[in-house]
């Protein structure tokens, strides 16, 4: 089996959290810890370093000790803008890194084998990109991205005004790595106050929190 080097990891936290009433979703508490703490714990061992993509005052994430990288594309252009910011940061600061793994920073039950499974899917399919899926539904913001494609992504975002992740990945080829959604979806994300309540129930049941 081919062993790939670990990617740089980026936690995408640049959304507006409208359904949560604003604020930073990853800073909401579940089982006595913030979602962000949970995500970092599950993701850090899978990557060769982490950065956080967020807009606004970076000081609010100072407790993580992570570099905070803002979108370069103005106007809250969505996850693709955060991925581009991470690719550019990697090119400038980590020239040894060939790929970036991205996750949504509001996924408290993130799989601990995410990167390994994404790499396997990409390798098996012979594709440059890979994204996660569960219960037959893809999760485009959760994936692997070659740093070498950042120029094409910048053109798509700025010149073509492209905002749909799956439309851009289809140009290059994107493999899919599937996870079961039982006993719960590992890519459950907390978008609403009701989601936070459900996450509390899941954490209490399956983690003994």
In short:
The protein has 209 residues and is of the alpha/beta class.
Describe it for me?
- Helix content is 33%, strand content 21%.
- A hairpin with a 2-residue loop joins strand 2 (29-30) and strand 3 (33-34).
- The protein has a single domain (8-207), classed as Spore Coat Polysaccharide Biosynthesis Protein SpsA, Chain A.
- The protein has helices spanning 35-43, 79-93, 114-125, 150-158, 165-172, 193-207; strands at residues 8-12, 29-30, 33-34, 50-53, 68-69, 99-104, 129-134, 137-146, 174-179.
- The protein has 209 residues and is an alpha/beta fold.
- It is globular.
- The chain is built from six helices and nine strands.
Helix and strand topology:
Elements (H helix, E strand, L loop, with lengths): L7 E5 L16 E2 L2 E2 H9 L6 E4 L14 E2 L9 H15 L5 E6 L9 H12 L3 E6 L2 E10 L3 H9 L6 H8 L1 E6 L13 H15 L2
Helix pairs in contact: 2-4
Search tags:
209 residues; alpha/beta; Spore Coat Polysaccharide Biosynthesis Protein SpsA, Chain A; two-stranded antiparallel ribbon; 6 helices; 9 strands; 33% helix; 21% strand; globular
Question: How much beta, percentage-wise?
Answer: 15-25%
CATH fold descriptor: Spore Coat Polysaccharide Biosynthesis Protein SpsA, Chain A
Question: Mind summarizing the main beta sheet?
Answer: 7 strands, mixed
- Spatial ordering of strands, largest sheet: 5-4-1-6-8-7-9
CATH-assigned homologous superfamily: Spore Coat Polysaccharide Biosynthesis Protein SpsA, Chain A
What low-confidence regions span 5 or more consecutive residues with pLDDT below 50? Answer: 16-21
User: From N to C, what is the helix and strand string?
Assistant: EEEHEEHEHEEHHEH
| Helical content class | 25-40%
Radius of gyration: 16 Å
Distance between the termini: 37 Å
Number of domains: 1
Assign an overall shape. Answer: globular
Query: SS-based structural class?
Result: alpha/beta
The total of beta strands comes to 9
CATH class: Alpha Beta
Task: Indicate the mean pLDDT.
Answer: 91
**CATH architecture assignment:** Alpha-Beta Complex
């Amino acid at each position: 089996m081919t062993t790939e080097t670990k990617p740089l990891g980026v936690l995408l936290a640049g959304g507006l959290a409208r359904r949560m009433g604003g604020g930073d979703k990853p800073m909401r508490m579940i089982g006595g810890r913030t979602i962000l703490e949970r995500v970092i714990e599950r993701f850090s061992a899978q990557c060769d370093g982490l950065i956080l993509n967020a807009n606004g005052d970076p000081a609010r994430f100072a407790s993580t000790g992570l570099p905070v990288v803002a979108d370069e594309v103005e106007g809250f252009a969505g996850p693709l803008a955060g991925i581009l910011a991470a690719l550019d940061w990697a090119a400038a600061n980590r020239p040894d890194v060939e790929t970036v793994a991205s996750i949504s920073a509001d996924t408290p039950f993130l799989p601990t084998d995410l990167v390994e499974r994404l790499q396997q899917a990409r390798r098996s399919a012979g594709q440059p990109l890979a994204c996660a899926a569960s219960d037959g539904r893809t999760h485009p913001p959760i994936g692997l991205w070659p740093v070498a494609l950042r120029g094409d992504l910048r053109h798509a975002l700025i010149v073509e005004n492209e905002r749909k992740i799956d439309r851009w990945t289809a140009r290059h080829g994107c493999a899919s790595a599937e996870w079961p959604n039982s006993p719960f979806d590992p890519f459950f994300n907390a978008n609403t106050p009701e989601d936070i309540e459900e996450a509390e129930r899941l954490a209490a049941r399956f983690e003994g929190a």
